[in-house]
Amino acid sequence: MSDNNIEYNGQCAFAVSTGKTDVEGGKGYTVIKGKKYAFSNPVAKLLFKVLPNRAEKADAVWSKR
Question: What is the pLDDT of residue 26?
Answer without folding.
Answer: 87
